[in-house]
Amino acid sequence: MDNKYYILILLVSVFVSAVSQIILKTAANRTYESAIKEYLNFRVIFSYGLFFLSTILTMIALKKVPLSMQPILESTSYIYVSVMGYFLLKERFSKRKLLGLALILLGIFVYSINMA
């Protein structure tokens, strides 16, 4: 497989992790009858299963993706979580959050120019 496929696998891994974070956040916003039900419910268990899948995908991707590229691609999770939080959780974008996301995008852009 070409390195581009491994980069795509890493991006999918980051996206899966972001989805897991959103599901965990929705689980945390609920009220539970007991502490056991707070941690042993479908949403939490499913989220940790997604985290496990994300870890496996990351390990597969890092066989071919340069380690110097991994933190840059991993930073896309901030974008995924922010966008999903906006649409799914009705969270608002503050000026600081928008500035932070713009800086992340700028960093990814600058890094991708240097890699070309």
Give a verbal description of the structure.
The protein is mostly helical. It contains 6 helices and no strands. It has helices at 3-28, 35-39, 42-61, 70-74, 76-88, 95-115. Helix 1 packs across helix 5 (76-88). It is flat.
| Extended strand count | 0
What's the rounded overall pLDDT mean? 93
First-last Cα distance: 20 Å
Q: In which range does the helix fraction lie? A: over 70%
Give the count of helical stretches: 6
Principal-axis shape equals flat
Give a quick account of the main beta sheet: strands, pairing sense, barrel closure.
none
Radius of gyration: 16 Å
Helix/strand/pairing category: mainly alpha
Measured by DSSP, the beta-strand proportion falls in under 5%
Order of helices and strands: HHHHHH
- Poorly predicted runs: none
